[in-house]
Amino acid sequence: MDYLTAGESHGPMLTGILTGMPANVPIDIAAIDRQLTLRQNGYGRGGRMRIEHDTVTVTAGVRAGQTTGSPIGLLIKNRDYSHWQDIIGAAATNPDHLREVTRPRPGHADLVGGLKYDQQDLRNILERASARSTAMMVALGTMTGQLLNTLGIRALGYVTAMGGHRLTAAPVPVDVAGLTTIVEGNDLRLPDDRQLAAFHAVVDAAKAAHHTIGGQFTVRIDGLVPGIGSMQNWRERLDGRLAGALVSIPAIKAVSFGDGPALGDEPGDQAQDDITWTPAAGYGRASNHLGGLEGGMTNGQPLLIHATMKPIPTQPRGLPTVDVRTHAAAQAVNERADVTAVPAASLVAQAMVQLTLAQVITESFSSATLSDLQTSYRAFAQRTEDRKD
Fold first, then answer.
1. Quick one: the chain helix, strand, coil %, rounded to 5?
2. Which H or E element spans position 17?
3. Is 311 assigned to a binding site?
4. Does the annotation list 295 as a binding residue?
5. End-to-end distance of the chain based on CA atoms, in angstroms?
6. Residue 321 annotated as part of some ligand binding site
7. In 3-state terms, what secondary structure has residue 357?
8. Which of these, 43, 38, 37, lies nearest to 206 by C-alpha position?
9. 129 annotated among ligand-binding-site residues
10. How many CB atoms are closer than 10 A to CB 12?
11. Domain 2-386, what fold?
């Protein structure tokens, strides 16, 4: 399984191609659209979200609600393109209307992208580097999530901290099924909506101070059998693939699993997950400090992945920079941006985790059709289950 996206922030559309999806997977397009709406609607989002109302169009690979086994084509139209087609369009020719960007924003791809691709107008960089592209990642990830659901695997991303303010209590309930209604029912994707007002106040204070804030989030995955991934080669280690997928999301600067950095402060006999066994349940763990991963493989515990998002680099008050044409000191360009996008990032991360797990599972098991995949996956699960005796 592989995927590719294309499209600029203010271009006519985002496009995506997904290959390697098994045939006969039921696809719920309305469910994909719901996730796209959730990506847009978080508290602290900016004016662009009032313009776009994202929906996905499937252009290939799905017929009568099921995948055909062919490459799947997706597109999401940019409604804002009507205001930009003379500026960003392939046929745009009038320099007076190109809205050239020559003052790069610190923390963004503007300057280094311009140097790499020999661009004086940095709009050619920022249009593609924009997090607008994550809308297509959500569509692709939600589609592969529907495949995972047929195997009993479910994922959920939720916010745990914003602007230095953290959840004051652990999520209850702690499973994906119980948390989804709570997380998707509030505008910050918090697992405890009783703390919503305190987090709203943090966002409001940042907006009043004219700056942006980052935060932390968790992606939890339930239903994975032991042994997904491998210890054989570095490319096959599941934690490496998941970490790589998450740091590919714009503004993500740290990823950890389980207790994460705190493990470095613990003595060795308290940082592991003691192995248990009972006749009824077979092998288990007394804790989940390692976040469901040992030796680059799932161990049957819930998978817990944590990530940190830096504050959005586009500031209401542009930061000090240099004009790339004149080399004179300047103030960075102020493109339209959000106060925070941590809730949206948690949903994008959920999608990226679903994509990565779907890749690993379809690589590991026969997957020409959904029936093939279910049969081979369940046979593997049964083999590991039989080892409990």
1. 40, 20, 40
2. strand 13-19
3. yes
4. yes
5. 35
6. no
7. helix
8. 43
9. yes
10. 17
11. Chorismate synthase, AroC fold (3.60.150)
Please give the mean pLDDT across all residues of the chain: 93
Quick one: CA dihedral 348, 51, 6, 64, positive or negative? positive
pLDDT band, residue 300 (cuts 50/70/90)? very high
**Cα 247 from Cα 109, distance rounded (Å):** 15
User: Is 39 assigned a ligand-binding role in the annotation?
Assistant: yes
pLDDT at 375: 98
Q: Considering only CA atoms, which of 114, 123, 61, 70 is closest in space to residue 95?
A: 123
Does 314 appear as a known binding residue? yes
Over the stretch 89-118, which tens digit does the pLDDT of each residue have? 888 766 666 788 999 999 999 999 999 999
Residue 271: count of CB within 10 angstroms of its CB: 16
Query: Is 336 known to sit in a ligand binding site?
Result: yes
Q: How is residue 102 written in tokens?
A: 């020559």
For the chain, give every domain's residue range: 2-386
**Residue 222 forms beta bridges with which residues?**
154
- Concatenate the DSSP letters of all residues of 163-193 into one string: TTEE-SS--SS-SHHHHHHHHHTSTT--S-G
Give the tokens for residue 157.
Answer: 């991303």
**Residues linked to residue 156 through DSSP beta bridges, in sequence order:** 220
Distance CA 351, CA 239 (A): 16
Model pTM score? 0.94
Does residue 164 have a known ligand-binding role? Answer: no
* Residue 379 annotated as part of some ligand binding site: no
Q: Helix 238-247 and helix 342-364: axis angle, to 10°?
A: 140
Q: Look up residue 43 and give its amino acid.
A: Y
- 130 appears as a binding residue in the annotation: yes
